[in-house]
Amino acid sequence: MKKLINTCQTIVLLIVIVVNVQAQSGSDCPNLDFSLGNFTNWVCKTSNSQYAASTAYNDLTWTGSVAVNGRHTIMTDIYGYDSNTCNGSPNQELALVPDGFTQSARVGNKQNQYGADAIVYSMTVDTNNALLLLHFAIVFNDAAHQPAKQPTFEIRIQDSNNNLLNISCNRYFAICDPNVPGFNHCYAELIWRDWTSVGINLFDLIGQTVNIVVATADCGQGGHFGYGYVIGECRPLGIQFHYCEGASVARLEAPEGFVSYVWRDSNGLIIDNTQKLSIPNPQLGATYSVTMQSATGCILVLEATIQKSTINPDFTCDARSHVCYPSEVTLTSHATVDGMKVETFDWTISKISGVPQTEYYGTDSTFTYIFKDSGYYKILFTVYNESGCSDTSSVIVYAHPPIDVKINAPSLICKNTETEITASGADTYEWIGVKRVQSDSSAIVDKGGVYMVKGTNVLGCAFDTVEIADLEFAIHYTKEDNRCMVDTNGTISITQVVGDYVYPVHHYWEDLGFMNGASLSVREHLPTDTFVVYSIDAIGCFRYDTIPIKEELFLGNIGLIQGESFVQQTGNYTYTVDSVEGAEGYRWWAKALTSNGDVRLLDTRTPYNRILVSIRDANSIQLHVVAFNACDTSDTSSLFIQNASRISERTASDDLILFPNPTSDQLTIQCNKAVMEEITVVDLVGKVVLKQSIRAKECILDLRPLHKGLYFIRIQCDDALLTEKIIKK
User: Fold this and answer.
1) Spatial CB neighbours of 361, under 8 Å, sequence gap ≥ 6
2) Mean pLDDT along residues 639-646
């Protein structure tokens, strides 16, 4: 790292614990190091408390979840320096990004805003991320205030309830103070701390979720700023050892990022003080420990035991010892180290006959190799462990020289027509891509395409391919449809043949007896029907087309008449229907429904789908409309129009009283001068819907069973028949 501080003091001393853990394979914490160039997996927060610096992180009110421009910033300039840290003075500049990284995150800025800023990262601890490494730098604008109002910087490891976790180095909290060791001074009022690393042991929290918090705050009076830079990493908590059985030296490697290392042997004697320890003449089972101290005072102790590594260079080759040139083989790794699948290996394929040549391949676990020539090939598979130890396995494959295998097939076939193709030049054959195998040396195809055969004999094998083209064409035609059902004036004319075909093309019609008839490209005087034509080219490729002759004057559905079906007063009313497809005009007619019969009101033919109806009396009207065309096809719709303009609420005449009218349930009838003998209720079309015999001058009819609408009531008295209109609401 650039200018890593070797010693420092913090305001809060961090706890020291000892952990004994074996080294494990690495793991990452996605974007903990901001390698994505953004704040993915981080929660960004802000606080605008006026006295933010006087309190710790948990005492502030935080808002937001996404990065705020200028307050949460990704730094990508690996050659840049912070402009506030003695810019231009040698060895007095803070690098925006430390060595070994491509970006960092700045929390806060140099604006004076009474504010505080924070970023939070959550992760579940497992054996692969139990060592947390945090790298940070701090910039303070010294306000010379009381400590409670000075700018601050804080790192804390806590649970989801913001409680500090009971682990070593769970918090680093710094208040701007020019007298604190570990800070540099610049421009009188500015102090800054160079990139500092701290290792945090999370081993006791395996299976739990922890929150990593980085927070900064300006001074409490709003005139001075504080901000920081941070990068995070996670690793297995353990010592990596590099040792191959039988080697004269074993190398142990402690986690980087600490300022001091003390190695001890199994007797507790100090043997080294570097990050990496070399052990001459190592002994299996020997144990070593290292005590590490971070720049903030955190202490970790790790142990490792020299162990034997078992390497299994297993792989499969899908070919036998003899294959066909130019065939191919698929190689698949099944390698393990200490029982675990590994991805660190090399493939080497060497031709060991004729002109020797060697090809090297990468670390793909499965890949396909195509032989460049016939001859003997050695496939060598080498597997490595993390210490660089290796083991190999190999197989020798002979690629036989080719034989002369040929496919005999036509260059053209009719689409959807089966054709036999044959092979020669070998003893046995394997067909690829055909519809079906007819015999060992023949196959059936039914469409154009590329077909392959693999032939073998005692000397070797070879492939041959053949490409067959489809012949497929189409016809273009024009036609005239009939106008009416009885017409026979339809025509069909085939105008063009397009696509792949062998000239000439003949056209035969199903209704004329197919091949028994003459080839015709024009048909005339056709009735309404469907006609099938078969088109055949010179080599027998054919197609068929279905061509309908239909009535051109199709008459669509007229639908319902739209307009007022219940009017309260006389006047002119407009009625319409939907425009009918194929209609040349509309006939409208209407009649009034009276007690004495029907009275024709109008009867007219018009090209319009609307009509104006004049309603002048209280009679109901039956309106009709029919759409028509030249073929006399039609579609009809009707509508009853009920008129209540002259119906009173109480009385119909001096002799007969009906009330209430209109009514929704009961109708009272009073006859002043005679006795009623029979009451009959009929609907608009004359159907009797209610009939009752009585002998009284007054009665009550129950009309609830009737549908809403207009009805006629007929009352038979001693010497007369009375008829009136009633309305059921």
Assistant:
1) 346, 347, 348, 349, 367, 369
2) 67
22 pLDDT above the threshold of 70: no
**Pairing state between β 442-445 and 436-439:** antiparallel
DSSP 8-state assignment for residue 319: S
Say yes or no to pLDDT of 137 above 90. Answer: yes
Strand order in the sheet with 171-175: 42-47, 116-124, 209-217, 152-158, 171-175
Task: Output the 3-class SS for 628-692.
Answer: ECCCCCEEEEEEEEEECCCCCCCECCCCEEEECCCECCEEEEEECCCCEEEEEEECCCCCEEEEE
What predicted TM-score, i.e. pTM, was given to this entire model?
A: 0.46
* Whether residue 642 has pLDDT greater than 80: no
- Indicate whether 6 belongs to any domain: no
| pLDDT of 51 strictly over 60 | no
Which tokens belong to 11? 């305001």
Q: Which of 238, 337, 246 is nearest to 283 (CA)?
A: 246
Q: Which domain holds residue 492?
A: 473-549
459: left (phi over 0), alpha (psi -120 to 50) or beta: alpha
- What 8-state DSSP symbol labels residue 80? -
Q: Are the C-beta atoms of residues 489 and 482 closer than 8 Å to each other?
A: yes
Query: What CATH number does the domain containing 269 carry?
Result: 2.60.40
Query: Which tokens in the block code for residue 336?
Result: 């393990």
Q: Is the pLDDT of residue 103 over 90?
A: yes
Q: Say if residue 301 is in the same domain as residue 322.
A: no
**Pairwise CA distance, residues 503 & 497, whole Å:** 10
